[in-house]
Amino acid sequence: MVAAAGVRLAKLSHQFRLRGAALPVLDTIDLAAAPGEFVALLGPSGCGKSTLLRLIAGLERPHAGRVLMSERSVEKPDPSRILVFQDPTLYPWRTVRQNVALGLETRGLIRTQGGRIDAILRLVGLDGFDNAFPHQLSGGMAQRAALARALVNEPSVLLMDEPLANLDSMTRLSMQAELMALWQRERFTAFLVTHDVEEALYLAERVVVLSRRPARIVAELAVDLPYPRHRGSERFVELRHCILEQLGLQVDW
Amino acid sequence: MPTGAIQATGEDVADSVRATRRPIWWCGGVAAVAWLAAAAVTNGWPDDGDLGPTGRLAGCMAVIGLLLLAMTLTSRYFALPRLFRTGPWLVALALLFGTWELVSAKLNLLPRPFFAAPQSLLEVYIDDWPRLIESVAHSLMLLVTGYAVGAVLGFISGVAIGWSRAVGYWMHPLLRFVGPLPATAWLPLAFFVLPSSWTAGVFLIALATGFPVTVLTWSGVASVNAAYYDVARTLGASQRFLILRVAIPAAMPSVFVGLFMGLGGSFAVLVVAEMVGVKAGLGWYLSWAQGWAAYSNMYAALIVMALMCSGLISVLFHLRDRLLNWQKGLLRW
Predict the structure, then answer these.
(1) Which of these ranges, A112-116, A130-134, B2-6, B199-203, has the smallest mean pLDDT?
(2) Angle, in degrees to the nearest 10, between helices B282-291 and B248-276
(3) What ipTM is given for this predicted complex?
(4) Which residues on neighbouring strands pair with residue A39, listed in sequence order?
(5) Which residues on B lie below 8 Å from A82 (Cβ)?
(6) What are the pLDDT digits (tens) for B222-259?
(7) Which of A2, A111, A127, B8 could disulfide-link A154, Cβ–Cβ 3.0 to 4.6 Å?
(8) By CA distance, what is A60's nearest residue in B?
(9) Separation in Å, CA of A150 to nearest CA in chain B
């Protein structure tokens, strides 16, 4: 259990410079997540969802507007907000254990809190793989190690940038259930970027639909379904239908 | 090694306890016969002229043959897998030495003194070993010093250029202008400017090593996956952590390519420096032997030099295997 923190995006806009020309990616995004809330961000590919997460993480500074955590402005990256990428991006020269230890090392906590690594490896089902190198892991295991590397720091906010997109569909389903369990146990505030509508509905309490670039919020849907959710339930299908429509997809089925 | 893997099972352990089921090392038997035959030819066929300690050479060959014979006969009980794998090479070496002995010492088909007989080389090792050892020591001292200086400076400047835009701005043109110049081109200047020929040698070897190490360290640091930095930064890493714990380990495979290239270059410069200015070492020994037309000494020194260089390359390979054991598909030396 961690001290979750609320996150608020206030009139957040961002643009890139491409050969001198401004390329707007985010257009006045207003969004608030309560402490411990699970928010999914859905949108067409290339719409700026990943940029949004990078701004919340503090890896980039917004062009206009502000990112606030517990009502304090986010200026730079901090281990209380951790970003999990689409690729596991484990360091190939470190073993699983050393990868997971990364955050504790940067913060000088490895001596005192190194014991947490074992607990977290057990939590994500990687006990026994401590000394494996990343190239020896399957895609699902590598992504689990990446999750462990984030969770060992007990982040208040976990930012996930399509963390399951590169996994095969079977692994993805079981990882979604594991992610659910982890969130229910640790109760961090979660932002999940995905373009899998089912994944968003299965995991999130609220689904935010973004437009094409520059991204604006098109719709917000509260997912009023108890956990664990059933993908076949009537309400689930209804919500999926509704979101696909918001995304501008032809829904004939 | 599939057989090694199977041996771990219970049944095979019981087998190895009985310890009688190993196959005979037939290849060793063939090698033993070949070495003994070479010894017999060397000893029995009179030399064409006085060439050196032919009897001792034959003795050495016979000892090798007898050792191989003994190992073949006991191979059912004592297996030496690493040695046994070299069986075909041991046969080939016996044939090579036998043929060399025949065409040089016995039949005199190769013009002397430019081609030396095996016993002449053996004579050099017996008579001149103190000087050879001393030369190796001098060469090693010079090489290791120069190489270490070049590698350390090259590594540091490579990291600096790869990391800092300002350092890159100033160093890059210098590197492009001076780097490609062969280190040997500095030779006259170095021996003239620097206080001793030894320091000049160190300088030249460091130069030859430093350039490839700098460039490849730089390229290694510059091509680190940007996401690795993002990961570390979201976990709260400092600038120092990003350099020491992310950029440098990620660049190490490339650094080692530079270290290997630098080592090759340093051998060349070492020999030239010792032939031209430094009054000691294997390079000096080679040119000294040439001055006396002592061709056997030259061959003997060349063999020693090959062993030294190959040994140093092996050391570097071992170091790499230890440091980069996380890489898959490493070339085995």
Answers:
(1) B2-6
(2) 30
(3) 0.87
(4) A191, A206
(5) 234-235
(6) 999 989 999 999 888 889 999 999 999 999 999 999 99
(7) A2
(8) B230
(9) 8
Flag whether A56 is in a domain.
yes
Q: Is B166 helix (H, G, I), strand (E, B) or coil?
A: helix
Question: Most A CBs within 10 Å: which of B235, B238, B328, as the mutation test of the A interface?
Answer: B235
> How confident is the model over B47-78, as pLDDT tens digits?
888 888 888 999 999 999 999 999 999 888 88
Tokens of A157: 């906010």
User: Can you give the three-state secondary structure of B97-136, one letter per residue?
Assistant: HHHHHHHHHHCCCCCCCCCCCHHHHHHHHHHHHHHHHHHH
In a domain, A55, yes or no: yes
Average pLDDT of the residues in B73-93: 89
Of chain B residues 248-277, which have a CB less than 8 A from chain A?
249-250, 252
Q: Measured between CB atoms, does A236 come within 8 Å of chain B? A: no
Cβ–Cβ below 8 Å for B236 and A106 = yes
Q: Counting Cβ atoms within 10 Å, is residue A130 exposed (0-12), middle (13-18) or buried (19+)?
A: middle
Q: What CATH number does the domain containing A36 carry?
A: 3.40.50.300
Query: Which sequence spans correspond to the domains of chain B?
Result: 13-110, 119-323
Fold of B119-323: MetI-like fold (1.10.3720)
User: What is residue A2's predicted lDDT score, i.e. its pLDDT?
Assistant: 58
Distance between A137 CA and the closest CA of chain B, angstroms:
12
- Could you tell me which residues come within 8 angstroms of residue A118 by beta carbon, excluding any fewer than 6 positions away? A127, A130
What integer pLDDT is reported at residue A94 of this predicted model?
93
Using CB atoms, pick whichever of B236, B250, B324 lies closest to residue A79.
Answer: B236
A248 has pLDDT over 70: yes
Domain housing A192: 7-88+155-246
User: What pLDDT, in 10s, does the model give residues A43-97?
Assistant: 887 778 888 889 998 898 888 888 888 888 888 888 888 999 888 899 999 999 9
Strand bridging mode A206-210 / A189-194: unpaired
* Domain tally, chain A: 1
> Which among B273, B148, B185 has a CA at the least distance from the CA of B281?
B273
Amino acid found at B202: V
Burial of B291 (0-12, 13-18, 19+ CB in 10 A): exposed
By the 10 Å C-beta count (0-12 exposed, 13-18 middle, 19+ buried), B84 is classed as: middle
pLDDT tens-digit map of A163-209: 888 888 888 888 888 889 889 888 899 999 988 888 998 999 999 98
> How far does A188 lie from chain B, in Å, by closest CA?
16
- Nearest by CB to A102, from B235, B252, B326: name it: B235
User: Which residue does chain A place closest to B240, by CA atoms?
Assistant: A106
Q: Cβ distance A191 to A33 under 8 Å?
A: yes
Contact: A57, B232; criterion CB under 8 Å: no
Instruction: Looking at the complex, report in whole angstroms how far the Cα of residue A164 sits from the nearest Cα belonging to chain B.
Output: 17
Pick from A78, A89, A92: CB nearest B326: A92
